[in-house]
Design brief:
Strand content: 15-25%
Structural class: alpha/beta
CATH topology of the largest domain: Rossmann fold
Number of domains: 2
Oligomer: single chain
Largest sheet: 7 strands, parallel
Number of helices: 13
Length: 361
Amino acid sequence: MKNNKASGGVVIGGYYGFGNLGDEAILDSAVRALRGVLPAESICVLSASPEVTEKRLGVCSVQRNNIFKVIGKMCSSSLYISGGGGLLQDDTSRRSLWFYLLLVKLGKRLCGHVCVLANGVGSIRQKKLAARVLRCADRVSVRDGESAKRLFQMGIFAEVCADPVFALPFLPEGRERFGYYAVCLKHGERIDLDALSAFCNMYRRRGLQAMFISMQEEEDDSFCREAAARCGGRFVSPQSFEFLEYLLSGAEFAVGMRLHFLIGAARVEVPFVSLGGDCKVSDFVDLWGCGARSVPLDCGASALSEAVENAAAAHSEYKKERSEKLAQLSSLAQEELTRLCRMCVSLCVDGRKNEISLGEI
């Protein structure tokens, strides 16, 4: 059954409403673009906390686990957007991948059109199922070349763009460093806090204090707070991606385990080292280059310090390359969001075909 509605709105699905700063920043970027061509009431976000999402963004939102409300919104919409983040993987759980593939399938059947927007693709064991569902999408884009390779191996062609967060406004340049460095830990990972404490002691003797930053309140706060107490650092739980970048912009360097923490460090041009073996994090480090380093969780204090020193030394040599890389990624992200807006207009979403011309986007 194919839905050919001449007008309607858009439904956006992703890991939204859980307080994850990275995923909320992706949503912010997509909504900013869509509100240039759609009224707020025509944009519906599937969220774990719909009241919070509605208040924060001023758009419609429904509980993502309420299948009846999801179906109701899709039936009155023209486009489903599978909106960014590492949705296409089953390392977290099989049910996570099933959930997002189900939304894609429902979106095609009920909305009539599907856009898989700048997704990250991790390890997928259920390749045949994923490929069968993704073939129904009208457009598939991914945020890095490694994700595109993984889909290509499954017989799915995807356009390579950039993470939508790179389309957000940048902070003003020139903030001073304030004698601290930023550390981001992820709950559930087996990190040696004794080794991390030894690392922090090394830098305390150099006059630098550790600032432990949580990227997801419910998931990471308690773990990061405990680590800060153990390592003699400060704990901060920023409530927005903009504030996260403000904190990072005053840091000497950043060490982290979450992707959008490292993206934030890259955007404010602070040297960074990634901790752990998460493929989406290592994919970004490879994509960014510019002196960034990756180390395993069990590397120890000396190896981590060596990686930081190498990243900081290389950072000063890559100023031109950093500027070019930021411009490239920002352009790719903006171009993909523009394509999304064009898609909305071409589908006559909200019946505004006569009000907006493609040349205005």
